[in-house]
User: Fold these one by one.
Assistant:
Number 1:
Amino acid sequence: MDQIRPSRGKARGRPQVETNQPGLSGGFPRLATNQQGFSQGVGGPRPRFSTQSLQTPITGVAMQRPPRQVQPRAAGAPQQRAPRPLGPRPAVSSDKSTARQDPMAGVQQITSGINTLGAGDTLVPIGRGAVRGRRQIEVEHFRTPRPESSLGKVGKQGTSGQPVKLLANYFPITSYTNWCLYQYRVDFNPEEDRIGTKRGLLGQHRERLGGYLFDGSMLFSGSRYDPSTFDLTSIRRQDDQKVVITVKFTNVIETGDYANIQVFNLLLRNCLRHLNLTLIGRNFYDPEAKIDMAHHKLQLWPGYETTIGRYEDNILLCAEISTKVMRQETVLDFLNQCAADRNRNKDWMINFKSGVVGTTVMTKYNNETYRIDDVDENSNPNSEFTKKDGSKMTYVQYYKEKWNLSIRGGRQPMLISKNKRSIRKFGVEDTLVYLVPELCIMTGITDAMRNNFTLMKDMAIHTRVNPKERMDRLTNFANRLLNTPDSVTELKRWNLTLSNRLVELTARTLPPEPILSRSQGYNGGEEADWTKHLRALPMFTSAIVKHWVILAPRDCCREVDAFAQTLSKAAQGMTFTLPRPIIVPMSDGRANTFLTHIEKVINETNPALILCVIPSARGDIYSLIKRKLCIDRAVPSQVVLLKNVQKNNLSVCTKIAIQINCKLGGAPWLVTIPKKGMMIIGFDVCHDSQRKSTSFGALVATMNDSHTSYFSCVEPHESGEELSVHFATGITKALMKYKAKNGTLPTSIIVYRDGVGEGQISYVHNTEVRLLRTACEQAYGPKSVPFAFVIVTKRISSRFFAPGLKGPQNPRPGTIIDTVVTDPTKYDFFLVSQHVRQGTVTPTHYHVIEDTLRLPPDIMQRLTFKLTHMYYNWSGTVRVPAPCQLAHKLAFLTGQTLRRAPQTGLDELLYFL
């Protein structure tokens, strides 16, 4: 049950499958935006509900919304306005007595809970499941200053390793006009929310405006209009309403401005629209090329992630293939499945809510995606809402008139989606979108699907694309872009020329790292896998185990005894002495039985480790055992499924023996890191699985020069709190523990920070780095200690291909890319640290945002590669440095299972492996 190695599926570089569930590769859903934050409207209006009325004082008169103040913008940075949900608003009376009779009054009950999603859902905390992986959403484009250590003669490039020619999934922009663009703000009176309607209204004046790009709020033109502010009058076709459009000059965008790249991306999005692709979320997908998996009731929609950016020597288009998982069932189908069990399960509605809340759905009528935040049992499609003009209608009538859709599902509770984008931009207004379950298709994969080996294997055939096929699909995409007439016209209009040849670059491959056992050295070879060596040689250090206990149901004790013998044999092969355990038979395998026996065994024998054999992979039993042994009583534990005990496989027993050794303080192998006195820290964040407002920041730090001894701590914090305060607390604890163990503080520190999106780098630099510096000054005094702060990013679109005799192949582990496709404003590099047998390997991106340690870039790159060898759950390299992977493992265990900070008595053991 305890993981014996990281999921190769995640670690390996297969194309991102957009599951759109928290914690999965899709992350939280996004409103449809282009890659640089430009809004893209899809479809028509959606029913909405304004929470503003709930916050109006109960006076019987609704307060008028104050005019929105427009903040001054930095030069070259276009203002970006978030689209608001459109359509009718449910009527909620200010009067309490009226609200009780209103069918929508139930919203007031959920709003108290849902409003907590508002203020707390800012860009804090940074971490897995927050707003990780999103593009820049701030108006001003922030760049952290590039550390001086990367500004020397060699810059940020390393020197070690063998040069190797690679291709990357980037296409050069071979020519573009150095045009000077003029930026205008466009306002509509009366105000118009639908971006498609805005485009139509503005398009009535194409002769006056000439060639332009319009993102929904800002207009970019190669011509300067005279006068600088002017009004245009259009007629809205659906109701013959006269609309006054005010166009106001705001800025000149020079070549080289960041906003210039934003305009390139807006132009690219316009070209993609001409390829008959469907915009879902922020990426385009091809429904014509969909793959039906009827026996699994799934469809896979292939698509593309694209962005244009400025890189070392050129402007490049990065293109990556993507896959959207579409389930062939509506939310109503899922509701009916849960309701069918209502006679036996009184909590069927709770099961429905838990299965829907937090997932993403796609509406049938306009392919818009929404994250579901709550379910309103007190409203249904026959409930009335108030339209903008004050008249009332039901949802059934609305969808019939607007979309010609008949709702037949009867009484079905309405789904609520909170438009967090508008909260972040403009405060709480127009933020609740009501959706009909019958009209919402479920997307992504559930935990049950993920645990279905057959389904995942069938899906991998289509999602794990090998380098040759990936290159072919990317080249076909570029040719399609360059051969579609409307797309060609758009590119010619702006004098933009795109190559259909992938970018070539020179990378370096580091030699295999020497690995030490207690008796001799070896390496992992070209595949960076040393499993065969590990089984036959003594582990680097072995823990001393006096006695340990196995708890198991009585009817399987014979099998458990045979399993214990195999485990001891496997451990002995690695010179790890595991004495015969005390096997405690239990009457059954229920959770309460385990808890009773655990308490009794600890009180009577105080074992070094408790191994629990559980009958099935039920999460509640696993969680209760872990909470008992990590929170109530600080005892290392191992949970094993009965089926694995029955198989009695030597390979599995070997991995369990290694885990037990690590959990008790041993180290299976060693990779030498020459620098003395260095403390290496990994940090990551995970949300509480039940209380979304609570997150856990996990910090793991090395405590010796061989980097085999660890200290770990977890700091819980609410979403509204600044994570940096708790981060600094963890750093201080780690420094004090290091001093207690070594008699002195470390002479240098390196922090590998996981779970940071591009838009949050400024936050991390301004707060976490500053707090780290302050914590160090408090411990060391004014001179402090040199440190480096490295942001680790796994969810990236970059892919690299090594030309070979048999066609394109994956680069070897240890391949460093620090030129051509890196960012000239950053101290960054890519590292391919793993070998994969299926699909295309995914590199990891490292960005050094602060460096007073001043290690040469070559040393920083080699150190990072060394650390990918030190994760003891897998006898091979992993995608990120070991302290980072350990921090993720600890944060995930705490957020998903423990939901409280573990006992400090375990903080020097890798009990969470």
Note: The first strand starts at residue 17 and ends at 18.
Number 2:
Amino acid sequence: MTFFSLRFVKILLIHFNLILQQKITLVSSQTSQNINVLFINELDNDAASKAIDIVQTYLKKNSNYGLSLQIDKIEANKTDAKALLESICLKYADSIENNQPPHVIFDTTKSGVASETVKSFAQALGLPTVSASYGQEGDLRQWRDMEEIKQKYLLQVMPPADIIPEVVRSIVRKMNITNAAILYDETFVMDHKYKSLLQNIQTRHVITAVADGDSARADQIERLRNLDINNFFILGSLKTIGQVLESVKPAFFERNFAWHAITQNEGEVSSKRDNATIMFLKPVVYPQNRERLGQLRTTYNLNEEPQIMSVFYFDLALRTFLAVKEMLQSGAWPANMEYLGCDDFQGGNTPERNIDLRQAFIQVTEPTSYGDFELVTQPGKPFNGYSYSKFEMDINVVQIRGGTSVNSKSIGSWTAGLDSPLVVKDEEAMKNLTADTVYRIFTVVQAPFIMRDETAPKGYKGYCIDLIDEIANIVHFDYTIEEVEDGKFGNMDEKGEWNGIVKKLIDKKADIGLGSMSVMAEREIVIDFTVPYYDLVGITIMMQRPSTPSSLFKFLTVLETNVWLCILAAYFFTSFLMWVFDRWSPYSYQNNREKYKDDDEKREFNLKECLWFCMTSLTPQGGGEAPKNLSGRLVAATWWLFGFIIIASYTANLAAFLTVSRLDTPVESLDDLAKQYKILYAPLNGSSAMVYFERMANIEQMFYEIWKDLSLNDSLSPLERSKLAVWDYPVSDKYTKMWQAMQEAQLPATLDEAVARVRNSTTATGFAFLGDATDIRYLVMTNCDLQVVGEEFSRKPYAIAVQQGSHLKDQFNNAILTLLNKRQLEKLKEKWWKNDEAQAKCDKPEDQSDGISIENIGGVFIVIFVGIGMACITLVFEYWWYKYRKNPRIIDVAEATSTPPGKDVKLAEGIILGQTGKEYEKANAALRPRFNQYPQNFKPRF
């Protein structure tokens, strides 16, 4: 078949259709049903107004419907209920007077005063009504708890603009969002959604209208961010979405934020943003409805935006009119319906209607033009508030680069409904659109809780870092951490202004305050604390550990030098005196040898023996054989008595000397520190310890002023005055004096400065640091030259700080209690206190039960080595002296006479002659050395 033959067949078919349509129009015109409609619309709802006009035109052009409309329009004022009611009553009275009362009221008011006025009017006068108002069953207050007979002719179908916000609920559930800001423009009505939209979902949310102006929108987003919100939903036109995106700072498009744009329009989102990725949802027409929608757009010019709303009004109106026509033609509509005027209504005389408009409305088979109607057909379930227009929304990932959408990818869809889940095709892409829960943490570096570490994932390590990581694993969040500029946890000044971490939390610049932060009453007024994660910690004192100087010859320092010299002089003098007495005494051994020749011990007390005797007498070995003469024995006894006293005194003083230095602790408590003036002391400037002492001093001053005022009160009777005279000074000034001393000592600005002052302190200029016990314990643990003094006081627990009213408080409380039950906190303490790599390997501090260390008594071993060395040297000297200097040669006389005759015999020096023979054998055949023989002419001096 050729092209021309095909064209000829198509022309014949079109001509046949036109003839057939004319015949149908002719038949239907004979049975055309006229319907009177009271159309009530809001002033700015152009989509509904245009849709009604097109319905009227559509029915005229399609006479096969057999339906003609007589429409009375009323433009509703949104705020003036009285004027609106007067307009409705006036129009209604005119229709009755003209014998054209309305068969049905078609209500397209959205919400508020206008909607409530229309519904009150319809219910009071019993007029069948089909409404496209916003809201579910409980939101329609005037139609709430109606009788069953009224529910059959007072109908409401929720428009798409009222269903679209329900996608927020589905997104929140799917992505497990914990916070949300929902911004909307005039194209959405959200007044009735404030409570119901995210009801029974644990999500903190704010629903608010989009601000006007770029700066106002920027401030609005900033305020929402300060409420710990990082998930934003924009419900509005494409223009509104673009304006909001352009008003936001670039930082709000980082990974810890998520943006969701939801619109009724079918176009593409555009914005001047440089770099942004958002989730974009827009409605899409069902494939089976596209042809009909295209015809309405081209033939009837149904192009009012948003398209989905104008088509919805068209379908709803057409369906309503067809249902009324069906009832009129079938006889289900009362023939003589009674109409009550506004002036005749007295509150209880509403006409009874036996009209089942709901059933006729459900049974209409007219196809829709965009989406289907989801109407309640189950008996017993309310029709109003649960019937709506069903359609689909496409879920797209849109990347905006350089002000244009460079990439748009469909990742799923959502079927409109009151509790409809998302259908996701790309789960990974959906996860990438989720805002990472990233909290801002501010901290103060304080070992071992927070310490800098460039190799750590966040740049910090410590007890608190491990703790927050454990909590993050339970609560599921990420965080950024930075140090507060002034290095303070937070104190309030005289003006009532805060600093440090507390100020960051008050100004909403921080989500979490982390560190060794004490729970204080004044802080809890402006911020919140979690349950304590660390035990009660107080203030304590840190001082320099007294270093006892060790010396190998410390045993020599027991006695003063002049005492040692006197002992040495006594030694030499006694030895010399004993030698003199032995030399000159006629009863000594050397002067009376024959008398003592049979004694076993023959000891001659020459000078060498006297020195040896006096030395050994001081030892447990004893001096040996005493002198024979009585005078010498008296000298020896005197020396023994002297030695006993010296040895006993030395032993006692040595033990005392080694323990006195250990017992020298001038400060053992805060009271000791307050009573003395030699050691300076102070806490860190701006620390909680400083605040404690300052306030205690102020309290003492206030109490003193109160007592002084009472004491000087002349109005008191003598009896009352006597009751106040219990104390001379009823209030202690301990802290007042301490605070004054601290100010004079100048408070250190940093912990490093305080430690340096402690280390540089001397006996004359001592310094004690008062600070948190945990800080001081860690410093003592990692430094061998520091010590803790006294007990803790003003004890408070450590906890994590959050913003006042923050949801993190409850979440963190549960997490900390979980870790506590698992004993995880004990493991962290074990890690950072007992097993810390920074722990110093210090010698155990000496106490009274310890023995003498080698450092203090090692000199004795040196004495032994020196003595052994001297003995070795002496041995060498003795050997040399004996062999080469004083050892004589012993020869026989025969050997001496064997010299040839005629030659003079000259004997070598040191040679002694001897003879052999029987007469000399008694002398053991050898002559004694001459220096051991007494001369023949020796006579005693006495």
Note: The first strand starts at residue 33 and ends at 42.
Number 3:
Amino acid sequence: MSASVRARRPASPPLTTPPIGQPLFSPPPPPKYTPYVREDHLDADAKRAAASRGLGPGSGRMKHHHHQHQYPPGGFDITSGEWKLLFFVVLLATGVRLFRLSKPNSVVFDEVHFGKFASKYIKSQYYVDVHPPLAKLLITLAGFVFGYNGHFDFSEIGKVYENVPYVAMRLLPAILGVATVPLSYLTLRGLDCRATTALLASLFITFENGMITQSRHILLDSPLIFFTALTVFFWTGFCNEDKYESFTSSWWTWLTLSGLSLGAVVSCKWVGLFTIATIGFSTVYQLWNLLGDMRVPPRVFVRHFMARALCLIVVPVVFYMFMFELHFLILSNPGDGDGFMSSAFQHTLRGKSMGDTFADVAIGSRVTIRHVNTQGGYLHSHPHTYPGGSKQQQVTLYPHQDSNNDWRIVNATGDSEMNLDWANIPISYITPGSRIKLRHIATEKHLHSHDIRPPVSDVDFQNEVSAYGMAGFAGDLNDEWYLEIDHGDKRDSESYKRLRTLRTTFKLRHALTGCYLFSHKVKLPEWGFEQQEVTCNKNAVRENSLWYVETAKHEAFPLDAPKVNYKLPGFFGKFFELQRVMWTTNAGLTDRHTYDSRPDSWPRLRRGINFWVKDHRQIYLIGNPLVWWLSTMSVVAYVAVRGFLILRAKRGYRDFDNTKVVKYDSLCGFLFIGWSLHYFPFFLMGRQLFLHHYFPALYFAILLSCAVFDLLTSMLRPKVRLQVAAVLILLAVWHYQHFAPLAYGGTWTRAECESAKWLKTWDFACNEFYEQYGMYDTVGMATPVSTTGLATIGGEPGGRAAVVVDEEALKGAVGAGQQQQQQQQPEQQHTSTLIGEKAEPGRDVFNQPKKAKSEGVVKENDGDDGGVEKVVSAITQPQTQPMQAHGKEKERGGPVGVDGDRQTGGGGGDVTTTTEKNGSEEDKEGGGGKLPPVVQGPLGEAQAEAEKVAQELYPDAA
């Protein structure tokens, strides 16, 4: 009954006649005060609209006409208590990152490269690396400020630092690693997560073992992660400002800072392009929503578009290019990297400039000839012969200016060129099809080819190129070549009609065999001084068969004859050329490595990277399993829940009308996109990859795991939520402590190490550790022979650097090794790593079964991160037969490469083992010299031989 009763409406006031001059109907007078409109009292549609913009209930971010609250910068509403808590967390992170920063006092992993690059910056020596310069410049600045003079060579892992402020150089990545911690806290708070959630994220990153290890050494990944986190922080602040009010000074500040940070992250590593893609995706999403908002006029939309284009495209590009301008200004002197650049680029370096040279080339001209494609250098010969094949004088490519690069062009169809007075002979220009000879001026031999296989590229379609003849010898038909003009220069029409210096690109075809003078990125062994191989190729690739004349002189040319020179590139020319070189070099890093890994194994933490092994300690990059696997589970959970919500939406459910669902979908979706764009592109790369490439994606995954935590605990009381977070933090700290010896290179027992191998694929070397902690305190204790501490390597193939011999450990090994040798059976003896099997990080070669036959091992380092290092490890074996290569016997004194074959490779860093000539010329077998064995006798005598050498070095060690 009561439900059907209507409440009586109050009586209307009586109508009265208004005073003269006022309208008949006037609005009621305003109330005495206007109450503050709270967001909690918005209707459902208003709440849903606010949630779609990322505004939660009670966030205080809506504009009101009355009693408007002060909006915090970037929407980061942090209380004073939170700032105090964050200060404590930063102190904790500082202690974790800086603990024992000076240990080890020797080179670790890629410090071989990046420390060396710092040396080159200080000495202004030009180099080429696959990474942009910002992080390396920051490390160099730290070393320079603390007095580093650039004279330490960083040549090998384990080399003890001398007169190097390595602690200061390590301090910079460590500080940036510490700074990442508060950024993670502030970012999640800006994304409207609770303080407990932000605290959990900051402590997860504080105790993440992989990030700790990577930030404690002279490496680039810590600056990369820092600038990635900084970019996300600035972008979060901008998005909050954009939701509040656009085009304010604060709005422009956050947007500009986001652009600068994008420039910084891509200036550390090209992985920063993935961060640009993440911000770009978010920007496109914002612009798309603005375009569909009918309340936004087109003029305002254009302003939004132009502002983002200016700050997020132009600003990062300018910053990136400015870093390379500093790079070019500092590296003004020639160095080992200028051979990667074009000739015009090289002539911009100090001391490499070239004077004007004659534009025309004629019969009798004295010329230097350069290869076009590989920038390998000048056509070169020197008075050293090939150890095999024809055993004639070597012809190579040499990257530096030298008198051995000079050749004289002579007419192959005319009279003998001997003793001609070139100043009084009529000028005869060289036209297409001219039949010529190239006479090496220093040794008076002709450029020559014949049907003999080259020393390295030993295939049927390649012929050896040599220098043949003697003073007064006119040569033979194998010295003759046809010149074919490939193309000229548009600025010089004559360059298409005849040979012109720096303008005409030509090929040389051998007159008898029809092969073309050819070179490629293959290096000769040590006997060829690691110079680039030159062959005559019947199936030559056009690009590798092109040559041009760099300088030309002729006695008959007048001094005022036309001259030419390189058109030196400006900044943009050098910038774009270096980008191409970096891209090509980066794509060429395809060699396998002992500790490389593929992207599918990274989220599961299948294996790590051996950084350093020495003194019965090891540094091994591995993440905190709890943090790592929890973040991976959160990524999978988000994908599953998002897919489930999509299916429910197809069935008509209105889950996305719920403000909580909209909020967390927006939050987790942004972090998931960041993780995806930093992870999945690596599947498209065929280059060498390592676990540390996952770290930027890991940062997003950790934030995503904490966002999932925020959602799951959103219904709990604050005290209960804090207790759950405390449990997770304690578990993370326990995992950090459990694997801390691998992060800091600390002491560990072998049993503890073995028990820590939770996965079979974790290959850190437990045999490196002592059985008991007390053994670390024993002074003067002899190192057991069966310990790889005598020689350690790590990183690239064979260790990314040369084998490091611990001489102190070797001294102690001599006496103990003699006693052990008498107790061992011959079949159980193993060769020392000094002369034996290639020692690999994380593997005790003394406890591995020895193969019946072993051969020389030569590994090349084309490492992920720049420069090429040499690793040579020779295996002892009894040898009674000459080594075979491509089905043919090696010539005496020839190079021995992998599996007895000649080792080839590019990049200027290849090296092969060589053998000295042994015996007389009559001591031959099958027409070719037999390689002498590295160590005579059975395998059982190999270790005794090593100890004999050691005794000669350290006679007092026994």
Note: The longest strand covers residues 378-385.
